[in-house]
Amino acid sequence: MKKLASILIFLFLLTACNNKVNEIESNIIQIDGSEIALDVTKYVSKTDEDIGYDLRTVVEKDTEIIGEGGDILALEDLQPGQSVQVIFDKPIDLTDDKNVSLKKITVLQ
Asked: Which domain of life is it from (predicted)?
């Protein structure tokens, strides 16, 4: 029984320390070629200070870009200020990873 409890505590601590995410909702800050800067402040900042955090992402050839109504869009259709939901190619750490590949972008507004 103690062994099972130890394993459960270990797994809980392991998952509690894992800051990786698969998807987020964010606003586009900037678009530069195939790179998109996303505002991740609400996911990273733990204070009330006026500090902004961005995440540099890369739109790949196979990245899906979907509009509000389900229409297929091109990278050129995206604009700074738009609210989007993005799915990453693999789970990422928002505080450490840079230039991460996007699997899917859905425009929310």
From this structure: Bacteria
